[in-house]
Amino acid sequence: MIKPIVISAVRQEINEVKTLLFDAPELAYQAGQYLTFVHSQNEEVRRSYSISSAPGLGEPLSVTVKRVANGLFSRYLVDTVQAGDTLLTIGAGGFFTLPDNLGDYEQVFFFAAGSGITPIYALLKSVLHLYPRLHAVLIYSNRTPEVAVFYQELQHLASQFADRLEIEFLFSNHPILARARLYRDLLEVFVKQYSLTTPERTLAYLCGPLNYMRMCVYGLREIGIPSANIRRENFNPETAHPSSAEPSDTDPHNVTIQLPHATYQFQAQYPVSILQAAKDQGIKLPYSCANGVCGSCVLRCTSGKVWMATNEVLTARDLAKGLVLTCTGYAAGGDVQLEL
């Protein structure tokens, strides 16, 4: 459901990066999630932006937005909106969150590059303020200190939680090349230097450009961090890698979707995704990127099988729970039942 949300304040972070604060105490979310906005001109546009506030700290709901030169909506948010304006949102979503079994872990490593700090900033604040047993390490890469979002706030956290937080700032203009950017050997040095527990009791969160996150994943796996303990956030639909394969079953099938206040049934057939088939019937389902990257369209499959052409967000644990992406999902092998 699309809801109005009022901007209570706008804060300049650095050049071309602003934080929008909202008066929306009724909107539930978790640290690390994103807010999806809906903007309609000639056609409906949906864009997701990371939440930088931490819900457990009494902070107002906030998103931090970096202006993208050819980004229609980011330019509007950074250049035009002001306090008192109303935006439309479908609410918070995403799986880049702290696990329910957080008590099983002792340490969290955060790896951020550029504006990838935004969801990690919310997670880091939550870990430090709400989980006193947990130790945290942040490795944060930028071109220069002047373009590092939340630079002063992070330094304050490092001072406030000196016994539980270590931060390594990496800047591309550093005179020593080995300290200018994160690479696999340096990642290994940092993890071994700051590790206080076993790999199995260590979590890792990554957010930044695709190649940066790939390097981090490979490096972390090489030093023994289980893949199930590594979470990454990716908002760029252009990085999606659709499967070149087709589902073994391309026949039409009935799809039943149970929403909180209504049940819908329609027919879907490859190559039309479940989400597109629903939209063609005028059924409004949650979605944002429509490329299998963000996870806004996720539903739970309770009967039948959904084949996904792209999945850049759901983990093996999510798939075991029956979660599927409707934007790249197709009914395969018979009729399908889904629920929100």
Automatic annotation (TrEMBL):
Q: Gene3D superfamilies, from UniProt?
A: 3.10.20.30, Nucleotide-binding domain of ferredoxin-NADP reductase (FNR) module (3.40.50.80), Translation factors (2.40.30.10)
- What SUPFAM superfamilies does the database record attribute to this sequence? 2Fe-2S ferredoxin-like, Ferredoxin reductase-like, C-terminal NADP-linked domain, Riboflavin synthase domain-like
Q: Quick one: where's region Disordered?
A: 234-253
Q: Where are the transmembrane segments?
A: none
Write down the CDD domains for this protein, in alphabetical order: fer2 (cd00207), PA_degradation_oxidoreductase_like (cd06214)
Top-level division of the source organism's lineage: Bacteria
Q: Where is the composition biased (Polar residues)?
A: 241-253
> According to its UniProt record, what is one Pfam family this protein matches?
FAD_binding_6
List, for all copies, the residue spans of the domain called FAD-binding FR-type. 1-99
The record places domain 2Fe-2S ferredoxin-type at 253-340
Q: What name has this protein been given in UniProt?
A: Flavodoxin reductase
